[in-house]
Amino acid sequence: MTQISSDIEIAKQLLLANELVAIPTETVYGLAANAFSEAAVKKIFALKNRPSFNPLIVHIASVADLEKLATNIPPLAYKLAAAFWPGPLTLLLKKKPIVPECVTAGNTTVAVRIPNHPLTLALLNQLPFPLAAPSANPFMSISPTKPEHVKNYFDGKLKYILDGGACHDGIESTIIGFSSNKAVLYREGSCEIWEIEKITGKLLSASSDSDKLEAPGMMKKHYAPKTPFVVTINYRSEIKKHIGKKIGVLTFLEVEKDEAIFTQKHLSNDNSFKEAATNLYATLIDLDAMHLDLIIAEYMPNQGLGNTINDRLERASS
Ligand code: TXA
Ligand code: MG
Questions:
Q1: What is the per-residue pLDDT for 221?
Q2: DSSP E strand stretches across 125-259
Q3: 3-state SS assignment for residue 81
Q4: Is residue 266 part of a domain?
Q5: Who has the most CB within 10 Å: 3, 59, 197, 221?
């Protein structure tokens, strides 16, 4: 049985015993373990069925903890930390030997952030080690934004889910690395590019830099529902290609009811990308549970977080 409650003492005792605990963050739920214990970290890879070449983000309580994990920290990294932590920004920095190789998948960098969730911050403050935590979903599945999503994925296989309610931001953290003192974007996420660029100037793109790869976990097909999934600029013309199928449609804003569609869902009532991001994964998970023949999602307007949502929709499409 997987227990769900908001008792950080239970979470703490399990983590001290090198067990896994699902933790809430402002972005998505994480599957956490003692980052300094190879045995504990290996349990994460085993439970998620995650390939060992895909490194984990390490969650810390304070900027002081950063210096225990990383070295050669550029001034720009400190500026970003001061501006956005606690918050949905992950920094890639040169690792210190204390960080086990299995956490970084053999990379010389370690990914670090301070998450912005009161329960998880309180937990981190009480632990004598940082927490390695990927999103709490099986490899290639949609990231969980509610405790019940985690329970559905790992029921009986995970002892404890620390219940922090629904995640506020709903999309994973933005990942930034550094190359000759310039900031490089590795993954779009909840921390908005234009806000980061106020501090860094124009971000370099990891995928266009021939020396660098995108974050190794950013496989093209990712965050994928089990239901066939297409993303399109116009759902009305797309449904015409699939007459007779049991279709679910996902749009940014509410659209007119259409009898040809089995279910229609929208991401925002308020014309807000932030609201759409918060709702994205939970809505995808709901649609995926409806035994549809096909999910048709319509692209968001291509700006700000709309762009980031479009990135995730493309990775979800089969
Ligand atoms: O918001 C988030 O970032 C959530 C919460 C739980 O913090 N975590 C999350 O973890 O999204 P995960 O494992 O699903 O995605 C982490 C990404 C992967 O694409 C991984 O490849 C990349 O971070 N990453 C981690 N360490 C890295 C490293 N040393 N170098 C390059 N990429 C790294
Ligand atoms: Mg993930």
A1: 64
A2: 131-132, 160-162, 174-179, 182-187, 204-205, 229-232, 247-251
A3: helix
A4: yes
A5: 59
Order of strands, sheet of 294-298, starting from the edge strand that comes earlier in the sequence: 229-232, 294-298, 247-251, 263-266
In the chain, the number of structural domains is 2
Q: Whose CA is nearest to atom 19 of ligand 1?
A: 217
**Are residues 185 and 236 located together in one domain of the fold?**
no
Q: Judge contact between 91 and 63, C-beta under 8 A.
A: no
Model confidence at 39: pLDDT above 50: yes
Q: Is residue 224 assigned to a domain?
A: no
The verdict on the CB of residue 55 being under 6 Å from ligand 1 is yes
Q: Which is the closest atom of ligand 1 to the Cα of 187?
A: 19
Same domain, 39 and 76: yes
Please state the rounded mean pLDDT for residues 202-208.
Answer: 84
CATH of residue 294's domain is 3.40.50.11030
Listed residue (154, 101, 156, 157) closest to 132, CA to CA: 101
Encode pLDDT of 122-154 as tens digits.
999 999 999 999 999 999 999 999 999 999 999
Bridge partners (DSSP) of residue 92 are 111
Residue type, 148: E
